[in-house]
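Write out the 3D structure for:
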Amino acid sequence: MFNGRILLGLKTGQIVDMAYKADGKVKPKVVMRSHCDGETWGLEVLHVGGGNKILVTTGDDNNILAYDVKTKQALGFG
């Protein structure tokens, strides 16, 4: 804990930032998503116009992740 905040690395491949509250009523913010099991074995780069790209990955954990290449943020997962 630092300055009333907790940074958690989860088994699911996520890093979560949240404020510490004794009542447990705080919504965590996902800072990073990644694959959590085995290898990443699928990769596709989508050109979505205006020079923007989306990177899509799949892996042994049966997840599909989409990232915005410019902002380096996860857009979605499933």
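Residues 1-32 form one domain.
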